[in-house]
Specification:
Elements lengths: L6 E9 L3 E4 H18 L1 H5 L11 H8 L3 E4 L3 H4 L18 H17 L8 E5 L10 H9 L5 E5 L5 H15 L4 E9 L17 E10 L7 E11 L5 E2 L21 E2 L1 H22 L7 E6 L4 H12 L12 H4 L6 H8 L9 E8 L3 E10 L1
Parallel strand pairs: 4-5, 4-6, 11-12
Antiparallel strand pairs: 1-7, 1-8, 2-3, 6-7, 8-13, 9-10, 12-13
Helix pairs in contact: 5-6, 8-9
Bound molecules: octanoyl-coenzyme A.
The site of octanoyl-coenzyme A (CO8) has 30 residues, from helix 3 and helix 8.
């Protein structure tokens, strides 16, 4: 491969919403909702016709997940026991959509840090879990908002693995010569598809947007991350689902509203995904002739601190410290596809020329992606 078809990560960008919800605030609001529900349904609960709801707990959330708070675009309505859902007013078609707006903010930061102008970019991939509409594509709206007159954009959804699938797609464009500079953007408004009344999952997700600029090495800034190799994997599972979709209105007899939001069998996901991902990383490292000691840092998908502890231990052969496997779960919670990119964005500057690391995603589908990278400069 020559420098003109070697893909590199030139830069990244991050947009973080202003508002954050702590576990304490979240649990207080959830427990008020539970108390109201149990009070209003006392007779039906006593008769066994309605289920009595249980309180959530800060201690459980932190122990089970490592999450301490999450950023959200709309805070007060989520915490209002009568609403428990973000409120993001509908915008006229003439205004930029909120998903594109936060994507553009992250994209501009990535472009600025690489010293790149929008017209230098050939393609925009909007890769995320929750797309706000069917069409026109959010990526095309972002392309327009950035002021790119040429090039193309499209949306892609591989749930939590959307970013790594986007990176491989962009890297393949560079390798084939069909593009020199590609923006992969991950706007995640997870608060919109989270059931804030579900005790098992109400604490899991937050909102954010990340952007990754993938370019050919010959045009990239001197300081960049060369992509050594990528691997994608999918394996069908019903353990994480969201049945929201355009055919919902064709079966109005459906009474189950909850499955039109995020639902999961968290325990099964944990048990099945940890070995799948750990094996995938080890196999891919071997493919590139890498020993575990060659891996300076793992930027793992940010879903659960326990999962990351087990995966990192299996890959590195010892318990990973924060420097080897940094977390952003405590402040950002699970932000789906953006999680490993936030970790990379915030914890990569200190590495040295030649250091090797791994960006890794895993989630619904199941889907998983590995991106091995080496720092240059
Ligand atoms: N407070 C107090 N107690 C609780 C709570 C709570 N909030 N919730 C559950 N409990 C209780 C349960 O009732 C249970 O009690 P008992 O033992 O008496 O039955 C006990 O705690 C243990 O419950 P679990 O077994 O469910 O708890 P776990 O230890 O398994 O932890 C987790 C739950 C944190 C969910 C954990 O299983 C986990 O993180 N699993 C992996 C999840 C994961 O990685 N999912 C990936 C999803 S992301 C993705 O790909 C989709 C992206 C789409 C984005 C959509 C945006 C909304």
């Amino acid at each position: 491969m020559t420098d003109s078809n070697t893909p590199v990560i030139s830069s990244t960008g991050l947009f973080t919403p202003e508002n954050s919800i702590s576990n304490e605030e979240l649990v207080a609001s959830f427990n008020s909702y539970v108390d109201l529900h149990n009070r209003d349904n006392a007779e039906a609960i006593a008769a066994g016709n309605v289920e009595e709801l249980q309180h959530s707990s800060v201690e459980f959330i932190e122990k089970a997940s490592g999450i301490k708070s999450r950023f959200v675009l709309s805070k007060d309505p989520i915490l209002d026991p009568e609403t428990m859902c973000p409120r993001l007013p509908e915008r006229p078609n003439e205004e930029i959509s909120i998903l594109a707006e936060i994507g553009v903010k992250a994209a501009k930061q990535a472009l600025e840090s690489a010293g790149r102008k929008p017209e230098d970019v050939d393609a925009v991939l909007c890769a995320c879990s929750n797309l706000q509409r069917a069409y026109p594509a959010i990526a095309v709206e972002i392309q327009d908002a950035l002021g790119m007159e040429d090039g193309f954009g499209f949306d892609m959804n591989v749930a939590c693995s959307s970013a790594t699938f986007g990176i491989q797609t962009a890297a393949d464009y560079i390798r084939s010569g069909s593009a020199k500079s590609v923006l992969v953007i991950n706007p995640e408004i997870c608060s919109g598809h989270l059931n804030w009344r579900d005790r098992d999952s109400h604490f899991i997700f937050g909102d954010v947007a990340t952007a990754i600029l993938i370019e050919a090495k010959d045009i990239a800034p001197d300081k960049h991350w060369e992509i050594i190799g990528t691997k994608l994997k999918t394996q069908f599972s019903n353990n994480i689902r969201n049945n929201f979709g355009f055919l919902n209105r064709t079966h109005p007899e459906s009474r189950d509203e909850d499955d039109k939001l995020f639902i999961q069998e968290g325990r099964k996901v944990f048990k099945e995904v940890v070995p799948m991902v750990a094996n995938m990383i080890v196999e891919q490292a071997e493919r590139f002739g890498l020993e575990s000691s060659d891996l300076r840092r793992l930027w793992l998908h940010q879903a659960n601190a326990g999962m990351n502890r087990l995966i990192a231990q299996r890959v590195l052969g010892h318990e990973a410290n924060d420097d080897e496997s940094p977390t952003v779960l405590d402040t950002y919670a699970n932000t789906s596809s953006a999680g490993s990119i936030i970790a990379f964005h915030k914890h990569s500057e200190d590495l040295s020329d030649g250091d090797i690391g791994l960006i890794c995603s895993f989630g619904a589908g199941y889907s998983a992606g590995t991106v091995f990278i080496r720092k240059n400069g």
